[in-house]
From TrEMBL:
Native source organism of the sequence: Nocardia terrae
GO MF assignments: oxo-acid-lyase activity
Protein name: Carboxyvinyl-carboxyphosphonate phosphorylmutase
Lineage: Bacteria, Bacillati, Actinomycetota, Actinomycetes, Mycobacteriales
UniProt cross-references to CDD domains, sorted A to Z: ICL_PEPM
Annotated PANTHER family: CARBOXYVINYL-CARBOXYPHOSPHONATE PHOSPHORYLMUTASE, CHLOROPLASTIC, PHOSPHOENOLPYRUVATE CARBOXYLASE
Pfam families per the UniProt record, alphabetical: PEP_mutase
Record InterPro entries: ICL/PEPM, Isocitrate_lyase_ph_CS, Pyrv/PenolPyrv_kinase-like_dom, Pyrv_kinase-like_dom_sf
Length: 291
């Protein structure tokens, strides 16, 4: 199936009354399983690619080139399943965003997700996130929309404003991004069922919700999300989390040791398995005062 057909399939699924459930994919076997189980979309998780492909935490260390290559491989595996692909902040200024969209589109993805964090970004369920101004992200979003050669490519605008600025600012940004032409809006890390419902009521665009195991957002059922009107539910951590749990328990058994000290229950603990604490120390060591 051509990328154009897959993009159209995803757009039709977004417009339908049901919720598009998109499990996280990060390597060949996770993509094969999602395809064989008949999901209507897959989600290339940046956190999963960073951890599984490069042994790194999700703090902006993986490059555009590395992400594009992973996206291309996943598209090749997901022959009949649309791929929604995480592109972090677009990897730079509007000029870089244009090239990012061009490269992701050439790789065959069906949707590209861009966020309004400052670079280097962090996983949306980690603390101390920093944002770019609304106007700066709107310029990058416009660049992304203009860069498409296939108008069927879905552009998803994500705001991380809930953490640093609160839910009111997050909804304000979300509506600004929708007004600018984003196809789907993604408000990251709402805290509680009331905020999930409020976003659905107040943001006037197709909505994506991110359901992370142990994260800040409660895991709502697909039935409830459908009732609220959400279009897409991504589950980026589910396959990776279960795989990591199985690897940890089986390797601990082989080593004759207790796995519980390493067993993660939230995203920061998972990322510590791939060096979050060490990389955070490096970042603090070279932090530029006033930046």
């Amino acid at each position: 199936m051509t990328p154009q057909h897959l993009r159209q399939r995803l757009r039709e699924a977004i417009a339908a009354a049901d919720v598009v459930v998109a499990p996280g994919v990060f390597d060949g076997i996770s993509a094969h399983l999602v395809q064989r189980l008949g999901f209507s979309a897959a989600y290339m998780t940046g956190a999963g690619v960073a951890a599984s492909g490069f042994g790194l935490p999700d703090i902006g260390l993986v490059t555009q080139t590395e992400m594009v290559e992973r996206a291309r491989m996943l598209v090749d595996v997901l022959t009949e399943t649309p791929l929604i692909a995480d592109a972090d902040t677009g990897y730079g200024a509007p000029l870089n965003v244009v090239r990012t969209v061009q490269q992701y589109e050439a790789a065959g993805v069906s949707a590209i997700q861009l966020e309004d964090q400052a670079f280097p970004k962090k996983c949306g369920h980690l603390p101390d996130k920093e944002l770019v101004p609304t106007g700066e992200f709107l310029t990058k979003l416009t660049a992304a929309l203009d860069a498409r050669t296939d108008p069927g490519l879905v552009v998803i605008a994500r705001t991380d404003a809930r953490g640093p600025l609160g839910i009111d600012a997050a909804i304000e940004r979300a509506n600004a991004y929708a007004d600018a032409g984003a196809d789907v809006i993604f408000v990251e890390a709402p805290q509680g069922a009331e905020e999930i419902a409020r976003i659905a009521a107040e943001v006037k665009a197709p909505l994506l919700i991110n359901l992370v195991i142990g994260g800040l957002t409660p895991i709502e059922s697909s039935e409830r999300l459908k009732e609220l009107g959400y279009a897409i539910a991504i589950h980026p951590s589910l396959p990776l989390g279960v795989a990591a749990f199985s690897m940890l328990t089986s390797l601990a058994e082989l080593a004759g040791t207790d796995p519980s000290p390493l067993m993660p229950s939230k995203p920061a603990e998972f990322f510590n398995l791939v060096g979050l604490a060490e990389w955070s120390d490096i970042g603090d060591r070279y932090r530029i005062e006033g930046a």
